[in-house]
Amino acid sequence: MTTNCIKFDAADIGTAKGTGSISTLTFDLDISVEPVTSDNPMAPTHRVLGRSPRGRLVECGGIWRKQNRETGADYFTLTIRDYGFNANLGQAAHQDDPTLQAVIPWGPKEAA
Prior knowledge:
This protein is 0% helix and 50% strand.
């Protein structure tokens, strides 16, 4: 699988499970994502799980549904807590498959 992508098991990403990988100059992480059921509108849509150095599956971040203020379109963001890593999810380049989402990093707000 290509790095910096998540392959979901259904086109409705909000309720789908997925697996992928994220690679940067400071970390290289295989991840799995599991949907979260919550009545809280501020809750993430997914838990992001990675492996500890000893191989244990641990929650390391989340995926949230957001709404574009200008267009009203929904989109998803991803955070990996321990690395302060933030990204948007979007359809992978040159792909027609809506279940394959690219991980598109963006810096923290204070870095702007």
